UniProtKB/TrEMBL annotation:
Signal peptide from the UniProt entry: 1-27
Highest taxon, organism lineage: Bacteria
Organism: Aquitalea aquatica
The protein's name in its UniProt record: Lipoprotein
Keywords annotated in UniProt: Signal
């Protein structure tokens, strides 16, 4: 008999548990906060596979180029026929990223492509490159088995980079950066065909000018530079902190100059997220309107295998060679011989 009150509460407990489990971190949030939540989640738990494509719908040169019909036609058709597809994986735990871009040129009865597998490992600040696409022109790169060439940051430089502190600060800096953008730039949209294809529960829109994008970028870079500076001062290396500030100033000047030249350009991004706030995909269109280029580019990205990314390549010591141990190409030896004489 004493069990009856406890048993009577089970349906209520089960219902509350289910409701709690179904509650979305995006529920009830305005578009700007929901967008920031999705982006922050994507960076805090950066372990997934991704794929995508970049290309142009239209591209035209300057007004002088438009005055030449054949040149204008060629620029537009070459741009539309050229695409970059990417696949890859990110594993936050091992600080490892695989990126496999494929550069394609496709027209009726004409196809050409080049694939360049890359792997970035932040554990030892190394970049692995599979250069087999070019071994026809540089026979010294040829290998019957897959082989990666390793480029590695010198240890004395790598040891000065506070990587863990930078990675820890990055999600918050991105969140703060988007928090500086006007709320009117964000919107919650009705689910479209892409959302239904991806199984998304939320579709968010960001419309930003180059000035706004650069504002976010500079906030992130400024924050990372402060992390580097603080660590350098803590380690008794104030000069390294000053160098980081100088580099940031150079980037700031370049970015401001770029945004001034792109004052009439803009980008619109559609973000697709599931109920848990995980990013499933991004469709972005970029309108170019500068004195040198006018047109529309697109970027489509898809994310999958959240928390369980899979890697296409598994390089081992047996199939990795440092770039300075590669045999020098014959043409390079020929250039060096006169110098030695």
């Amino acid at each position: 008999m004493k069990l009856r009150p406890a048993l009577a509460t089970l349906p209520l407990v089960a219902t509350l548990t289910l409701l709690g489990g179904c509650a979305s971190p995006l529920a009830g949030k305005p578009a700007d906060l929901a967008t920031r939540q999705v982006l922050r989640e994507n960076m805090q738990h950066a372990s997934y596979n991704f794929s995508g494509e970049l290309g142009f719908n239209t591209l035209h040169g300057s007004s002088e180029d438009d005055a030449k019909p054949q040149l204008s036609y060629t620029i537009n058709e070459v741009a539309r026929s050229t695409k970059v597809s990417v696949t890859g994986a990110i594993d936050q735990a091992s600080k490892r990223m695989e990126l496999i871009p494929a550069f394609r040129f496709e027209r009726r009865n004409l196809q050409a492509s080049v694939t360049l597998p890359l792997e970035l490992n932040l554990q030892d600040f190394s970049l692995l490159v599979d250069p087999s696409a070019f071994d026809l022109f540089v026979p010294e790169l040829h290998s019957e088995q897959p082989r990666f060439v390793r480029f590695q940051l010198p240890p004395d430089i790598a040891s000065k980079i506070p990587l863990d502190a930078m990675l820890q600060a990055l999600p918050g800096l991105v969140d703060e950066g988007y928090g500086k953008v006007e709320q009117q730039a964000f919107a919650l949209e009705t689910l479209d065909a892409t959302a239904k294809e991806l199984g998304a529960s939320y579709q968010l829109r960001i419309a930003m000018s180059p000035q706004q994008e650069n504002q976010v970028l500079l906030h992130v870079l400024d924050g990372l530079a402060k992390v580097v500076t603080q660590q350098a001062e803590h380690d008794g290396r104030p000069q390294d902190g000053k160098q980081a500030e100088q580099l940031l100033q150079l980037v700031r000047e370049l970015t401001q100059g770029r945004s001034a030249n792109q004052a009439l350009s803009k980008s619109v991004s559609h973000l697709y997220a599931n109920r848990r706030g995980q990013l499933l995909g991004v469709n972005q269109s970029v309108e170019l309107n500068t004195p040198q280029l006018r047109g529309e580019a697109y970027i489509h990205l898809r994310y999958s295998n959240h928390g369980k990314p899979t890697f296409v390549h598994q390089p081992t010591a047996a199939n990795i060679i440092d770039y300075d141990k590669l045999p020098k190409p014959q043409w390079l030896k020929g250039l060096q011989e006169p110098e030695q004489q």
